[in-house]
Amino acid sequence: MRPTGKLHLGNYMGALHNWVRLQAEYDCFFFIADLHALTTDYADPGRIAQNDLDIALDFLSAGLDPGRCVIFRQSDVLEHAQLFTLFSMFTPLGWLERVPTYKDQQAQLAEKDLNTYGFLGYPLLQSADILLYKPDFVPVGADQVAHVELTREVARRFNGLYPGEFFLSPEAKPWELPSIQEKARKLAGEPKTSTRTDFSAAQLYEAAQQTKKLSPFGRREILPEPQVLLTPSPKLPGLDGRKMSKSYNNHLMLSEPEESLRAKIKTMVTDPARVRRDDKGDPDKCPVGDLHKVFSSEETLAKVYDGCRTASIGCIECKSWCADAIVRRLEPIQEHRRDLEKRPDVVRDVLANGKERAQKRARATLVEVQHVMGLG
Ligand code: SF4
Q1: Does the domain made of 9-161+227-235+345-372 have the CATH classification 3.40.50.620?
Q2: Shared fold status for 9-161+227-235+345-372 and 246-341
Q3: Which of 17, 76, 95, 239 could join 250 in a cystine, given CB atoms 3.0 to 4.6 angstroms apart?
Q4: Number of CB atoms found within 10 A of residue 145's CB
Q5: Is any atom of ligand 1 closer than 6 Å to the C-beta of 286?
Q6: In the chain, where are the structural domains located?
């Protein structure tokens, strides 16, 4: 999660809410991506440190539990930047230029000069962020799948260039070995009379590939390709009906005080068909309807559909039900946050402990990568 300030409801429903569930099922690593924040905010870094702490507070108050997952700050674990540098040696520029969000974001943030190496490289930094931990899965919404695909391509290219460790598998069929050794002799340019058998596992693996007799060999890749774990990311509109986003300034914060939350929801756009009180509308064409679908009970939702379609309720009333549902959902989170705000040491300790645990895992991967890339 990039530290661009306190999290909003879109961040919560699209990611954090899922993470809280995942920490019970998986060995999870969650981090505050402050290096990523610099890719767009390099000229104005003044708030990054405070934003880091705000996001950590949001993580904890929403239910991430440092006893069940690792929470850390990206820049605390130097291995992220180191692996990014190593990946940048072999990643073709074209792979980065064709990432769909590259051009989109440049256009969206036209006021910033994003013609920088760091901005072009941010998907590669993401690949380093992911592969350092050799994960089985990366939890993402449907719109992030392309980023994980790039990570898988980077892993594939790395594993192709630096093949890792080969081993004779327990299911090896001894009668296949002589023909594989013969192929290995040919590949090594041995004379026809040679009876050499002392080939490395990598040489035998290559020969086995060519004879299509791979069964005797296994290969332990250094960077396994992670899979996507698609998590629900419900449509969450902002106050103006566009996707909720800080850059559109149409968001509701996870820590939004009740009074301000109610006032903002009152200003939300609605189904344009409901100009007058007795005009009938359709919650499926209304951003407030979308919020009801995420936060309201079945019972309230039924009242919204019926009342809107028959014009028996007004938008003001409907919006107040919507605000009630969101306030109810946020109440325990905000209470937890208020409690944590009184104890700033808790957040600092969580980040310090997370740094240590993340670094241990990251260091082990980096040592393997450096070794096969000729760096000791
Ligand atoms: S009644 Fe509710 S769902 Fe219908 S248009 Fe008004 S705010 Fe939207």
Answers
A1: yes
A2: no
A3: 239
A4: 12
A5: yes
A6: 9-161+227-235+345-372, 165-220, 246-341
Cβ of 283 less than 6 Å from ligand 1: yes
Please give the residue that has the higher pLDDT: either 214 or 362: 362
Query: Would you state the pLDDT for residue 317?
Result: 97
Three-state DSSP class for residue 255: coil
Relative to the CA of 282, which ligand 1 atom is closest?
Answer: 4
Ligand 1, atom 4, lies closest to the CA of: 308
Top CATH class of 246-341 equals mainly alpha
pLDDT tens-digit series, residues 304-324: 999 999 999 999 999 999 999
The whole-number pLDDT of residue 214 equals: 64
Phi and psi torsions of 217, nearest 5°: -120, 145
- The token pair at 158 is 């790395």
Q: Global pTM?
A: 0.85
Residue 72: strand pairing partners: 31
Distances (CA, A) of 149 to 80, 126, 323: 19, 11, 38
Q: Which sign does the torsion angle of CA 85, 91, 95, 97 carry?
A: positive
